[in-house]
Design brief:
6 helices, Elongation Factor Tu (Ef-tu), domain 3, 158 residues, 27% strand, 6 strands, 2 domains
Amino acid sequence: MEEIKFTAVLEPVDAGGVAVCISKEFLFQLGGGKKRIPVNVDIDGVSYKSTIVTMGNDLFFFPVRKEIRQQISKDIHDEVVVTLSVDLEQRVVDIPDEIMESFLLLPPTLEYFRTLSYTYQKEMVNYVLQAKRIETKNKRILKIIEWIYEMHAKKKNK
């Protein structure tokens, strides 16, 4: 598997956040051509999984979350050493029991949830897990189950 190592600058992203931009040449070395490429990232010795995305106009980047920037003590406009490789492992979100129980009450919701992107699944699970009070957790579970059920119903009726 191809591994690419380079020095980059942490750049601000128009929509908010921070990212590392990569060249089209690096994208092709990683198998480019796709709109989204899952990658293993190492920035200044901190490893995580991410996805290279495009903003059009041959601009490609992957986000660098705040917690990663804190671990490496770097922020916007700082230089970092990056190592990238294509992530060939299937990404599966571990669904906590309290959410899974709700999915099992409406099986189509679990099926539809699994069709969503890894990142979207992870964000939904984190949305529930970040709640401190049990009442808030339950409301959030209900909210995502209702949303998923509605999206599944819309897709089924098309």
